[in-house]
Amino acid sequence: MKLTYHKNNPRTLLACAVSLAFASLAAPVMADADVQGRITDNRSNLLTGAEVSIPELKLRRTTAADGRFHFNQLPAGTYTLLVNYLGAIPETRVLVVADTEQRLGDIKLLSASEALEHIEVVGQSGAVSKALNRQRNAGGIVTVASTDEMGQFPDSNVSEALQRLAGLSVERDQGEGRFVRVRGLAPDYNAVTYNGTQLAAPEAGRRAVALDVIPSDLLESVEVNKTLTPDMPAGSLGGTVEIKSLSAFDRSNDFYSFTAEAGYNEQQSKTSPKVSGVFSKILDAAGETDSLGIAIAASYAKRKFGSENVETGGSWDFDDGLEEFELRDYTISRERIGLALNLDYRPGNNNEYYLRSLYSRFSDSEERQSMAVELADPQFAGSLGEAALIRSLKQREETQSISAIVLGTKQTSGNWEWLLEAGASKADEDTPFNIGAADFEQEFADGVGFTGSNILRLTAPAEAFLADGYELKEVEMGDTYAKETERNIKFDLSREIILRHGSLLLKSGAKFSQREKSAAEDVWLFEDFDDLGINALNLSDYAAANVDYGLGNMGSAIDSGSIYQLISGLNRDDFIDEVESQINDYQVDEDISAAYFMTQWERDNWQLITGVRYEHEKREARGTRYDDINEEFSVNQQSSSKGYWLPAVVGRYNLSEQSIVRAAFSTGLVRPNFQQLAPAFILEEDDDELEAAFGNPDLKALTSNNFDLGIEHYADKLGVLSAMLFYKQIDNFIYEADLAGRGEYANFAKAETYVNGGKADLYGLELNAIHKVSGFGNALDNLLISANLTITDSAADIEWFDDGTLFSREVALPSQSDKTANLSLGYETDVISLRLAANYKSKYLAEVGDVTDAAYDVYSDNHLQLDFTGKWTIRRGMQLYFNIINLNDEPYYAYTGRKPYNFQYEQYGRTFVLGVQITNW
């Protein structure tokens, strides 16, 4: 089956889909009464992901975070109610259904372990149990990280927490996890939603959401759906990361938690504080007992750290040597503030109203001292020659914010259920007036070179490290702002039909969303200071203390305050770079209308989900065209309208109570990112040759056919073994290309833009094993072992023209590692909890350096990082913890073509954290 493309009227298609759904729901049903209840342990802790079934009717429910289950309109009769939960003894009850609703209250489960009196719901084992129960009972292939599980690792944000899960890895920025990759697919190919509302992305050119903006303290869980069903919005090829907020009804009693910690990074001798708190309470309201739930969470963290870097940027001539390289030292301060307020009103067992809100702000203050070495002629290591040395400063404070709000209601009437929900998300990135580069230059006739390969070390005369002799050449200042908003409203309607041997769930819905993305940039270039009558042009006039650079000597730092003072005395309007200040401004508006219809059929050990989704998009893009030949600006505006059908079939079969086979076919869709779509166009002439660079609003969306097949085996007490095969056939792969020499650019020497390629293939194997050691009767019973391995491979063709001849070559998909793996060893008693975790990903293609030559492709090298966390329970509800992040001091290394050819080397040091957590369990 292949995803098809249409330009039909979206309103007609939406109406047809919804009409079909209502017509399908008109079948008669014989039913008498509802049955409701809640699953807890014997301490009244709510159990998420418990399976509640009625074997005689082939009906099954999975408890949500509030531990509740609900069977609608059961036929009158006597049945068996069976409850299964990993780590618990199965519970069986006789259920007599008459003509009135039954509220069974709390059904308490006991531990399956002879050594324990109650089910473990806290600590390492409890966190794993919650996640595995939800994964086992999911219809598709889902990987879950609960808030408790995230707390078992020293992870400060959502991105770093997800890297522990099978098939997931992260892209890092300054050593911190930032973007999430799913099954080897780059972050822009995965969607991120908050309670069903797609989160806006703060960065100017991307759709990918930087999850380091969101503190992990604010959430109830994070689910990664690796199979796509029709009721899920399009926007991913690899998977959808669903962030679920906490609710007061997720706890059986009033709850609070408080955490305070202090961190220390080896690169910076400063303390990094963090505090967070969670509070929830259930109240009586409007005459209803325990009907109003209030949950509040807040988090504040300020981390001070640094990094040391040396990079070439790929400036290699493999025959003659290196052309230039740069030494960089970063001083960084990152501040995170997170707030969440969630309200739930449940006036009856069949009515629910809710408000979910999230606000997160991430401020990144960064100062970069650097020394760039521009060699007059390419050199190899050990050679000396002529060069220009440029001492440079970059200083900026960038603030990203993400907010989301979801308001909705869910109503149940008999075997009908409907949901109405409205959501909105906003994100922005603000980098106010900042130093892009303040450059001081000095030339040396001889004596400049480098040694080493991965870590290049500068060789230069002693004068190179003094402030005297360096003259101010130029100062570039910038001011950028990007904003994205997303608003949506959706309606879902479902009906369950109880059959003689099973059940049939019919579900349909519609959704309308609006997305707006805009970016604005201003650039100033201050130069020719002699002509301005400025005499203070020596670096010594702007020098601070020596740079603390661990990879060599860099001499005096440049004082940022002195640079700002210099610029403040000049008129900015005289130095505006008009081209750079307009060409990067754009706005893209997208309206998406969607409708779906799906069925879920269950009988005996079978479950089958099938259906189709239709999405229609209308896009308006506005940018700037600049003709350098005639020195003219003009507006460049384009629009498009497209529609897509997205079918899916997802099935599971229970071989036994412990073993499950899963299979799925689904279709994915990812729209081009905004940098690729932006209709900016710049036309230049160089030595009588035409050159152009431009975005491409006509790009087609990437689409995929996804196939999954796998098996899972769950241990009775706690553990899982699973193997999942997956294959993705991707159409319209996007890459950067030069169109010079063909079509309307036949007379151009250069025409750089983004184009759609043909097909790309991604396939792999995902292995996961978790085992709680038991049965030894000694300290070994305190061990928990967790390991996962994902093996992937991919291939895509990129093309180019040379003298009218079409050439192509095969590359891997960017960001796709052949192997990603996690291994963690946990040891836990009632007093002590220890966990050592290893995270590994093999090399991957970071960027295509030269379309025509694979030797210039840039690869990020293998990365293995060890993290440790230790906890000591002082008394019930109070823990002292100690974390070591990057225990093995793993650096980041990227190379051009082959490992000896440095592209970038960066080291971050270890981070130590000491903290305390108080919880009212």
Automatic annotation (TrEMBL):
<keyword id="KW-0813">Transport</keyword>
<dbReference type="Pfam" id="PF07715">
    <property type="entry name" value="Plug"/>
</dbReference>
<dbReference type="InterPro" id="IPR039426">
    <property type="entry name" value="TonB-dep_rcpt-like"/>
</dbReference>
<dbReference type="Pfam" id="PF00593">
    <property type="entry name" value="TonB_dep_Rec_b-barrel"/>
</dbReference>
<dbReference type="InterPro" id="IPR037066">
    <property type="entry name" value="Plug_dom_sf"/>
</dbReference>
<protein>
    <submittedName>
        <fullName>TonB-dependent receptor</fullName>
    </submittedName>
</protein>
<dbReference type="InterPro" id="IPR010104">
    <property type="entry name" value="TonB_rcpt_bac"/>
</dbReference>
<comment type="similarity">
    <text>Belongs to the TonB-dependent receptor family.</text>
</comment>
<keyword id="KW-0675">Receptor</keyword>
<feature type="domain" description="TonB-dependent receptor plug">
    <location>
        <begin position="135"/>
        <end position="240"/>
    </location>
</feature>
<keyword id="KW-0812">Transmembrane</keyword>
<dbReference type="InterPro" id="IPR036942">
    <property type="entry name" value="Beta-barrel_TonB_sf"/>
</dbReference>
<dbReference type="Pfam" id="PF13715">
    <property type="entry name" value="CarbopepD_reg_2"/>
</dbReference>
<dbReference type="InterPro" id="IPR000531">
    <property type="entry name" value="Beta-barrel_TonB"/>
</dbReference>
<keyword id="KW-0472">Membrane</keyword>
<keyword id="KW-0998">Cell outer membrane</keyword>
<feature type="domain" description="TonB-dependent receptor-like beta-barrel">
    <location>
        <begin position="504"/>
        <end position="887"/>
    </location>
</feature>
<keyword id="KW-1134">Transmembrane beta strand</keyword>
<keyword id="KW-0798">TonB box</keyword>
<dbReference type="InterPro" id="IPR008969">
    <property type="entry name" value="CarboxyPept-like_regulatory"/>
</dbReference>
<feature type="signal peptide">
    <location>
        <begin position="1"/>
        <end position="31"/>
    </location>
</feature>
<dbReference type="GO" id="GO:0009279">
    <property type="term" value="C:cell outer membrane"/>
</dbReference>
<keyword id="KW-0732">Signal</keyword>
<dbReference type="InterPro" id="IPR012910">
    <property type="entry name" value="Plug_dom"/>
</dbReference>
